[in-house]
Amino acid sequence: MFGNLGAFVNGHVFAGLFGESIGVRLLDPASRVELSAIEGTGPFLPAERPMGGYVSLPTMWSSSPERAGPWIAAALSQVGAFCPKRPRPRRRSDR
Fold this sequence. Notes:
Layout: E1 6-9, E2 12-18, E3 21-25, H1 29-36, E4 42-43, E5 54-56, H2 65-80
Antiparallel strand pairs: 1-2, 2-3, 3-5, 4-5
């Protein structure tokens, strides 16, 4: 994921790292609003091009599984409800 780590479920990204930021994808608008109201959260990825639907967790939570864990689990659960992505057919090399 842009040279950083991404967490996938059924071929969909539900969480990722960008620098020191951990971002989670929350599909439920109420969850996004609840998380966004916590001090230290913000948009995920570069400020000039944030990823929609993702929220960065407070940086101090990166060493606190009891704070970050429930939000990562929520993202896993919500994104895991998507149908699995089908692999794209490989392009045939005409060399």
